Amino acid sequence: MNIIYTSLLLTFLIKMYSIFYPDEYNKKFHELKDKIQTIFVNYQPLFVNIGYSSIYYYSYCQIQINKIKKYITPYCSLYTKIIGTSFNDFLKRNNLVFYPFIFYPCTEKNKLTFFKNGTNVKEIPYIDNFIINDIPANYDFIEISDYSSDNNNFVNKICMVSIPSIEKIKYELSNIKFMSICLIYNEKKYDIYLSTEKYNYYIVGNVIDQIFLRYYLINILNEQSNAIPDDFQYKLEVLDQNVNMITLTNIDSIVFNKDNYELIKRENILQTNTNTSRNSLSKESDDYVNLDISN
């Protein structure tokens, strides 16, 4: 505030001076104006030269830094990977590796989510070449999320009932796409979407059964978990890709294959989404995916 008051006072005094002493004011004003113009004319080339030089040297430094960065980046990545892998191997040999104390970079790209009766029990990242020890003791469903490298908002969902024993999880996209799925429970109808712009459950070996539908109701449709009993009774109406209408109950399951699907009763259910079946997938398939985040 003092600066404002001082400025106002100074402006007032100058104005009074110009009113009472107009000739002297005009003389001093023109003298000051001439001095400023002289200084500007004399130093203008210097200022212009400094400006052009600054732009030139900034551009030169930027180009050189980009060249150096392009040259050393591959070596930095290689050394980081070698050092990180060596350290991780040391931890594994000495049984020191356990989540969350993992040296290897951890991102949201791939993760395992454990569920019990449709409720999220634990979520941990999938780290390639690691044996995960810190897993929950009680779960009945595992969802592996593999985020697309082309679209970080899209994820393939691999459904399992036990922790994979292999280090690189392999899966294959199914060509099956149902036209509609409707779940009828407690006299209420729920539309089930297994593929959207954000996620895809049409994976070879994925099973649509009572466990999956409970998970879907709670986690996708946001139903209350306490409102769904362990052995809830429902009816599932499916219009498949060939316009065939099928009706299933809680003792029926759908298993996705590459180009078709299987209907299996609970007592005869075959869990096809196991490590053995995924290992046998053809690597020549266009839809074969190797979930590997080591790079």
Notable characteristics:
single chain, 295 residues, alpha+beta, 2 domains, five-stranded mixed beta sheet, four-stranded antiparallel beta sheet, 23% strand, elongated
The count of domains is 2
Give me the count of strands: 14
Main sheet makeup: 5 strands, mixed
Helix residue percentage: 25-40%
Shape, principal axes of CA atoms: elongated
Q: Could you give the distance between the termini?
A: 60 Å
CA radius of gyration: 35 Å
Explain what this protein looks like in three dimensions:
The protein is elongated and about 110 Å long. A hairpin with a 2-residue loop joins strand 1 and strand 2. A 5-stranded mixed sheet has the order 2-1-3-4-8. The chain folds into 2 domains: 2-69, no CATH class; 110-291, no CATH class. With 295 residues, the chain is α+β, with helices and mostly antiparallel strands. It is built from 4 helices and 14 strands. The protein has helices at 2-20, 22-93, 210-219, 275-279; strands at 110-116, 119-125, 141-147, 155-160, 169-172, 180-185, 188-191, 199-200, 207-208, 235-239, 245-249, 252-256, 261-265, 288-291.
Q: Gist?
A:
The protein is of the alpha+beta class and 295 residues long. It has helices at residues 2-20, 22-93, 210-219, 275-279, and strands at 110-116, 119-125, 141-147, 155-160, 169-172, 180-185, 188-191, 199-200, 207-208, 235-239, 245-249, 252-256, 261-265, 288-291.
